[in-house]
Design brief:
heterodimer; A: mainly alpha; 15 helices; B: alpha+beta; Translation Initiation Factor IF3; six-stranded mixed β-sheet; four-stranded mixed β-sheet; 10 strands; 24% helix; membrane (chain A)
Amino acid sequence: MFPGSFMMGAKDRLLPPSVPYRFFVAAVVFHLAAWSVLAWAGADAGLGFVGGQGPVLAALHLITLGTLATTAMGAAIQLLPVATRRPLGPVWACKAMFVAYVPGVAVFAAGLASGTLVFQHLGAGLCSIGLGTFGWLVARNLRKVDDLPGVTRHAWLAVASLLLLVGLGFALVIDFTRGILADHGGIAAAHAVLAAYGFMGMLALGFSYVLIPMFILGSAVPDAVGRRTALLSAIGLALGAGGAAFGLGPLAALGALAGLAATFVYLRGMRDTLKSRMKKRLEPFFRMVWVAWALLPLSLLAALAPALGAPLDPWGTLWGFLLVFGWLLSFVTAILQRIMPFLASMHSSALGGKPALLSHLSPKLPVDIHLACHGAALVLIIAAILGGWVWPMRLGVLAGLAGAVSFGVYTIEVLRRYLSHMAAAAAAHHEG
Amino acid sequence: MAHTEPKAIDSTPSGPPEWLAPALDVAAMDVRGFLAEGVDPFAAIMEAAAGIEFGGFLVIDAPFNPSPLRRVLAGRGFSSYGRKLSEGHWRVFFHLDGGADWESGADVKVSPEGAMTWREDDGIHIDVRKLAPPNPMLAIIRLIETLTGNETVVVHHEREPHFLAPELAERGWRIARIANEVVNVRLWLERDA
C-alpha cells in the first residue's frame, strides 16, 4: 500500500478537504465583513455599545456566529472523529449544515444591521438548523467515547451551552418586537456567557488539549487536568449565566471567579505541555495563542466589574470586547492559521507522491501583518472604550479591518499553494 | 524449535533475566489463533494473568511483540522478557515479581512517552499502541530525529495516524507502506529518496 492509499483507507474519519475548507473560507469572509460593518458604522456607534439592534450588534454576530462558530464547526467535523476514533456522521449532514448555517448568519446579520425583522427571524431559524445539526453530529460522535475526558467533557458542556444559548437567542429576537422579557439586558448577558464561555470557550479548551500538544509536539495533558477544568467551567457557567439571567450580580461574580479558577488550571496544564515540547522554536501562529491566553483571564476579571454593579458603559463593553475580540478571536485565528495549511498538507498526498510541506504552504508576511494589526486594534479599542475617545476607536477599527484583509490574503495563498501542489501531483500521476 | 535471539537496540545488550530459566518450562498460551480470527485476546490473557500467584509465570505466544500488553501487565506487577522465535512468532515470558525492574532484562527500550523500541532485521520497530494522543506522534518523531542513516522505522499503531504525515514530510520522511492487522496497524517509515 502506498501513501495515496494511506489517505484513502481513512474514509471513515477523514472528510473530503472541500468540506472543512468551505467553513474556514466562510469564517474568513465573515471576519472581513465584521470589521467592514464596524468601519461603516463609525466610531460613535461602537463607543458605549451595551446592546440593541444596529450595525455593532450585527458585527458582533458576524464575529461570534460567523467567524468563531463557523471555524469551530469546520475544525470539529474534521478533528473530532480523528481524536475520538468514532465516525462523525454522514458527509451530507455536514454539507447541509453549511448550506443552512452560512446563509443564515449573513441574513441574520443583515437583519440586525438594518432592523429588518423578517431577516432576523429567517436568519435565526437557519442558524438554529445549522447549529442544531452541529450539536447532533457532535453528540452522536461523543456518545460512546469514554477515554478522552479532557476533550469530551468540554465538548458536552459546549453542546449543553449551545442548546441554552439558542433558546435564549430566540427569546431575545422575539423580544425585539413582542417585549416578552422582563430583563432583556440580563438575558442578553446570559446568552453572551453561554455563547462565548460556554459553546465557544468549551470547544476551545477541549480542542486545546489535543491541538496544542500536537502542534508544538508537547506531552499530552493529563486527564485529571481536563476533568478539573470541565468541572470548574461547568460551575462557572451555571453561576455566571444564572446570575446574569436572574439579575443576581454576586452570583454572576462567583461564576467569573470559578471561570478564573478553571483558567488557572487550564493555563498551568498548557504551561507543562509547553515545557516538555520538542519544538523549541514556536511557530508564528503561537503568537496569537499568547495574546488569547493573556486576554482570557483579563476578560473574566473585567466581567467582575459589571457583575458587582459597575456601569455597563464602559465595563460591560470592555468585558464583551475582551471576551470576543480578545480571547476568542485571537485564539480562533491562531488555530485557523495553523490548521488550514496542516489539513492541506495532510490531504496533499491523496494522489500519491510527496505531501506538500507545511512550511511551504504557510506564507509568513500576511500573518505577521495580521498579528500587528490585530494587536493594534485590541490596544486602540480598549483605550477608546476606557477613555471614551473617538479617534482611537476609528484607528482601532481600521487596524482590525487591515488585519482581516491580511488574513484573507493568507487564506487565499494557502489554498492557492495547495491547489498548485495538487495540480502538479495530478499531472505527475497522469504521466506516471 | 529455531530460536532467533532479538537484538538489543543499544550496543550493550543485557542478557536474559535470571528468572527466565524456570519460566521456560511453563506451557505457552498461544493467542495467534485468536488474532487470525479477528478476536482481540486481551480479555483471555487478563483472565489467565489474574490466576497467577506471586512468583509465578505466564507465557504468551503472539504474532508480534505485544508491547501494550507488556505495559499493562507491568502495571500489575509482571516483569517480562520477549523473544522473536521466527517470523510472525514472538514468545513473551511474564514473571509476577512486583514488576519494579520489569524492563531491565528485556530486549527493548522505552521512550519518555512509554513507546517501546527494538531492532529487527527489517529496521527499528516502535510500538505506540495504547498511548494517549499526541504521545504516539511524539514518540515517533523523537525516534526518527535520533536516526542518522537510512534505516526503516516500523511503527506498530492501533489506528492510521492521520496527523503524522505532515510532520514526517517536514523532516524529510514519508510513510512508504501500511498494513492493517487486528489490533496492529503497521507503518513503514523511510527517508525521502
